[in-house]
Structure formats: C-alpha cells, structure tokens
Amino acid sequence: MNEAQRIGALEAMLFAHAEAVETERLADALRLPTEETRELLLRLQQRYDEGESGLALLRFEPDRWQMTTRPYYGEMVKRILDTRRNAPLSPAALEVLAVIAYNQPVSRSFIEQVRGVDSSSTVTKLLEKGLIEEAGRLDLPGKPVAFQVTDTFLRVFGMGSLQDLPPLHEEAGEPAPVQNEDGTDAPEQLEWK
C-alpha cells in the first residue's frame, strides 16, 4: 500500500469504529510501526484542518483518535439525522460532573457528601448520557462502585484530557503570588502597622 492508501485505510477504520481508538491498535491493523501510524494520523488531521473539511480528527490522551464532524456543521447534521435537541445539563448534573472530574474515581456517597444532597438520579442520568462510567469498585467498606468521566465528557467539553480542566480556586486565605511583568514572582511587600 502507498501512503494515500494507508491514510484511506485509517479513515475507513476510524469511520467504522466510531469511538476513540488507540494508535497502537490502528498500527496493528495496518501492520505498520506505531510511530509511522501516528505520523499518518497527524497528516490526516492536518488535511482535514487545512481543507476546511466537515470532518475533524480528534486526539485524546494518552494516544487515542476519533473521527468526528466539526461543531460548525452540527445544526445541519442534526437536521439530516432528524434528531431531537438534547436537553442542556442541569446545574446538579454539572456539579456532579465537576466532583467526579476533579476527584475521580469516586463513589456515589462521596459525591453526595460533597454536594450535601442525594445524587442518585443525577448519576443515573449522566451514566445514560455516557458522560460518566463505572470504574470498578473502591477498596472501601462495602466495595462501592467508583465513577469516572468518559471520552464523551472530554469531547463534549472540548478537552483532550483531564489536564485541560481549569484549575480550582486558590485555597481560602492564600492570595495568589504577585508577579512581575516578566512573569517572575515579585518579592513580598512588608506591611507597616
């Protein structure tokens, strides 16, 4: 196979798979080294980006790829598929997602302890939407089910990994260090009383 055929094969596999797939798995299917497959994926991604294609190739950490449609064309895709508009996430669902994303893997009781209210129905709805998934059982009394966010969560919120989550606010009472114009920490100012 020449390079164009290899890239075509990658397109076909990514389209057919529909979910994120590891570079190594694609390389095995192509019978190519992983690094060469990764380079072909980067070329395909660049082709989609430069050609203003309706398709996009997303890369998720640590090394997974998924073919998607560009968000710009989302309304038209929805119309052709004749799908109903998904209801926006409730504030409770966003709270539960934040608790899980920043602390995963977590149990349902941990979520409820942080929120201070029963979160069973919210967790169930997020599981149905595919934004969270079970992540085994925690080594705690009763062996509770642990939850973590999914690749769908990352895609919906436009992240490649959990490292892209915004930082949590500074600890209460600890001001952020003052910085000089060049980005270095400024010396502490003494207060005269």
UniProtKB/TrEMBL annotation:
Q: Does the keyword Isomerase apply?
A: no
Q: Which SUPFAM superfamilies match?
A: Winged helix' DNA-binding domain (SSF46785)
Please give a single GO biological process term from the UniProt record.
Answer: cell division
Show the InterPro entries listed in the entry. Answer: ScpB_csome_segregation (IPR005234), WH-like_DNA-bd_sf (IPR036388), WH_DNA-bd_sf (IPR036390)
A Pfam cross-reference name: SMC_ScpB
Task: Report keywords, A-Z.
Answer: Cell cycle, Cell division, Chromosome partition, Cytoplasm
Q: Where is the signal peptide?
A: none
Region listing for Disordered, in residue ranges: 165-193
Question: Gene3D superfamilies under this entry?
Answer: Winged helix-like DNA-binding domain superfamily/Winged helix DNA-binding domain
Q: Is the keyword Cytoplasm assigned to this protein?
A: yes
Record PANTHER family: SEGREGATION AND CONDENSATION PROTEIN B
Would you tell me the protein name for this molecule? Answer: SMC-Scp complex subunit ScpB
- Which species does the entry assign this protein to? Candidatus Gemmiger excrementavium
Top-level taxonomy: Bacteria, Bacillati, Bacillota, Clostridia, Eubacteriales
The coding gene here is scpB
